[in-house]
Write a structure and sequence with these properties.
Structural class: alpha+beta
Shape: elongated
Radius of gyration: 20 Å
Oligomer: single chain
CATH topology of the largest domain: Alpha-Beta Plaits
């Protein structure tokens, strides 16, 4: 029977020490896991073939992520048994990475992130001064006021003014937790370090690593 091309969509959560893997290291972890799980990956052509595998929304180093996504082009002669693949892939992945769901879609398809929700959990309750600062930040979001920051452009090796209000959709907070919802477009989005700069929080204040708790996807 002739083999058909499918897109294997693997939703996963990554926490703990694995959150400190870079994007390339995370991609390599999945490449090795899928090969060890005997997933029939499709490879590129040429002198140095590599698996057709991608993580559509790269994660900042040190950021945890819930329901993240990796996509692989695979070749099957029949509809793949995704439940079996979920178990087999999980067996090849470290404990701090959980496979949430595996889907197979006939043909090649791509996913694009459209929105993301971040959680910043601090190690102590907010004091009055910080509460007032967050009230001001929320007012900026609600009124869609310009929020100018200095963004570093690595290719040009310089800083440039950047209006992050174009991507901020919502801000909410409790006594020790901040939740920010950001939009994503072809022109980009807001980085975690830029959100921290705006919110005036530092890594040493966190009770745990920043977490992406929700990603909205568009398929084409």
């Amino acid at each position: 029977m002739q083999k058909q091309i499918y897109t294997l969509v693997v939703d996963f959560s990554i926490q703990g020490n694995l959150a400190y893997l870079s994007h390339q290291e995370t991609l390599k972890m999945f490449q090795r896991a899928l090969i060890r799980a005997s997933v029939p990956l499709s490879f590129s052509m040429g002198f140095n073939p590599h698996p057709r595998l991608s993580i559509p929304f790269p994660r900042s180093v040190g950021t945890q992520s819930i329901r993240d996504r990796v996509c692989a082009t695979v070749e099957f002669s029949e509809t793949p048994p995704v439940q079996d693949w979920q178990v087999r892939i999980q067996q090849q992945i470290p404990a701090d990475c959980a496979i949430e769901e595996v889907q197979s879609i006939l043909g090649k398809c791509m996913f694009h992130p459209q929105g993301v929700r971040y959680i910043f959990r601090l190690g102590s309750p907010f004091d009055e001064q910080f509460q007032e600062h967050l009230d001001g930040c929320r007012k900026q979001v609600d009124e869609k006021s310009p929020i100018e920051i200095q963004r570093y452009w690595a290719k040009k090796r310089r800083y440039k003014q950047f209006d992050m209000s174009l991507y901020l959709e919502a801000l909410d907070f409790t006594n020790d937790q901040i939740e920010v919802v950001c939009g994503i477009s072809q022109s980009g989005t807001v980085r975690v370090d830029e959100l921290m700069q705006w919110l005036n929080v530092a890594p040493e204040q966190f009770a745990e690593s920043v977490c992406r708790t929700e990603i909205k996807w568009r398929q084409n």
